Amino acid sequence: MDKLKKVLSGQDGNNDKVDILEVATQASTLSWGTRVKAFAASFLLGVVCSILGSCLLWVPGVGLALFAVFYTLGNVCSLASTMFLTGPLAQLKRMCAKERALATVVMVTCLVLTLCSAFWWKNNGLAVLFCILQFLAFAWYGLSYIPFARDAVLKVFTFCL
């Protein structure tokens, strides 16, 4: 019991200060197999939510609201799934890195605007537009993890145009 009191007060047995974040990180670490399983489950949940949202789009009356919620929830789950592989803090740092910052801002903005257009403004066209922009921003964000993928996509589109 004394050991617990010392740790909670910020001191270990040697009267040295203990970093609370370090202790929490060590206590909550997952094995690699568990991380991969959690990643797969979260990513699969995201895909299922996105597909379910696309199917619910055609429900009369409330279809757009259900689509916006499930599609946005699916993208959030898919994005959050990578946090199981790298850890939340490392993932947030990578999301805010110079090469991904714009895609992250556009993606998060479109997530919020999709929900606003479906519930607050009740504008179907804007909700669909923001879902398309969500998809494009998420794809651009994902391509930033593959070396030279963005350059290749830009060259393909430049060639096509």
- Helix proportion range: over 70%
Instruction: Give me the secondary-structure category.
Output: mainly alpha
Radius of gyration: 21 Å
Question: What is the helix tally?
Answer: 8
- Sheet with most strands: none
Q: Pick out the low-confidence regions.
A: none
The amount of beta strand, in percent, is: under 5%
What is the N-to-C order of secondary-structure elements (H for helix, E for strand)? HHHHHHHH
The CA-CA distance between the termini, in Å, is 71 Å
Number of strands: 0
Averaged pLDDT: 85
- The geometry reads as globular
What distinguishing features does this structure have?
mainly alpha; 0% strand; 161 residues
Description:
The protein is mainly α. It has helices at residues 2-8, 20-27, 32-56, 63-86, 88-95, 101-120, 124-143, 149-160. The longest helix has 25 residues, at 32-56. It has 8 helices and no strands.
